[in-house]
Amino acid sequence: MFLSLPTLTVLVPLLSLAGIFYSASVEENFPQGCTSTASVCFYSLLLPITLPVYVFFHLWTWMGLKLFRHN
């Protein structure tokens, strides 16, 4: 299943926000208790950073292929 860029642009922030709200509701000490890599809270805080970086580098690679294909 392939999702288009406008769909991902809306879906990624909503999923990130849902993950943060879920962690905030489950963890009793939300921001301070997120330092252990064994907790789900730690990865929910990485989600808003990781996914936009992935989308950026994916688009960067795609633009590189488009620009330098004929050279």
From TrEMBL:
Q: Name one GO biological process term.
A: GPI anchor biosynthetic process
| Signal sequence coordinates | 1-18
Output the superkingdom of the source species: Eukaryota
State the UniProt keywords alphabetically: Membrane, Signal, Transmembrane, Transmembrane helix
Q: Which GO terms describe its cellular component?
A: glycosylphosphatidylinositol-N-acetylglucosaminyltransferase (GPI-GnT) complex
Entry keyword annotation includes Metal-binding: no
Coiled coil location: none
Where are the bilayer-spanning segments?
Answer: 42-65
Q: What is this protein called?
A: Phosphatidylinositol N-acetylglucosaminyltransferase subunit Y
| Species assigned in the record | Pyxicephalus adspersus
For this protein's source organism, the top of the classification is: Eukaryota, Metazoa, Chordata, Craniata, Vertebrata
